[in-house]
Write a structure and sequence with these properties.
5-stranded antiparallel beta sheet; 133 residues; 25% helix
Amino acid sequence: VIASMLTLNVSARHTADDEVERLRLVLEAVAERAQIRGTPLAVELLPQGYRCSAFDLRGNWTPIRNEPLFAQQDLSAALVWQDLRIDGRVAPLTVVFGSEMPVFDLAITTPTGNIHLVSTPTGSVQRRIGVTL
């Protein structure tokens, strides 16, 4: 029984690379959803994770809770938001997606070095290692 529990604990752990890849996929999915539905969505980078929010009818950002892909995620302490640049300027830690893809570069410090998640005009988010744009 103990061996089974240890195996489940080890397999349930995610590496920093896994967490960065999941965030990359979430950013792409949020961009696609915002473009298709024509409603703004945001990804807010929190001290220990991130959450996705939708702009509601009263003009407020409301966290998305009912969809697992967009639900708030906690990150390991090994990942630290280093810098977010939107259109080349330092920005608050929130990326807002609408009918067009924002041009952003998110720098993340990981145990193995810096990783950048960089948007492209087509809506994809590329992962670049140790390169500042």
